[in-house]
Specification:
Elements: H1 6-41, H2 44-103
Helix pairs in contact: 1-2
């Protein structure tokens, strides 16, 4: 798996989060509108099928979102860990530099 830069990761995560936000605002209303339409037209057999399809899609999307969120949190933790390691390395180098300056 190719490791992206923190900036690329942040931009990609932002784009993905915007898509999830749009889906969270739009899809439930579209589903409810479809169910109301089918119910008021009088297609009871279609209404029951639409409920099953809606519940299945809801479950699938919520499961996919859960895994997306877990992997994003894991990636953020890895980036933070690399950042801490880099700061510790910089701190060691600055201490070496400080000690070298004191010797001269």
């Amino acid at each position: 798996m190719k490791r992206s830069s923190p900036k690329e990761f942040a931009e990609k995560t932002h784009r993905e989060a915007v898509l999830w936000i749009r889906a969270a605002w739009t899809l439930p209303f579209v589903c409810l509108a479809g169910l109301f339409f089918v119910h008021f037209i009088g297609w009871e057999h279609w209404y029951e099928k639409a409920l099953v399809v809606g519940a299945t899609v809801f479950f699938a999307v919520s499961t996919y979102w859960w895994w997306w969120a877990v992997f994003k949190i894991l990636n953020i933790a890895e980036i933070l860990n690399r950042t801490v390691e880099n700061f510790e390395s910089v701190k060691k180098e600055l201490n070496k530099f400080k000690n070298d300056i004191k010797k001269k």
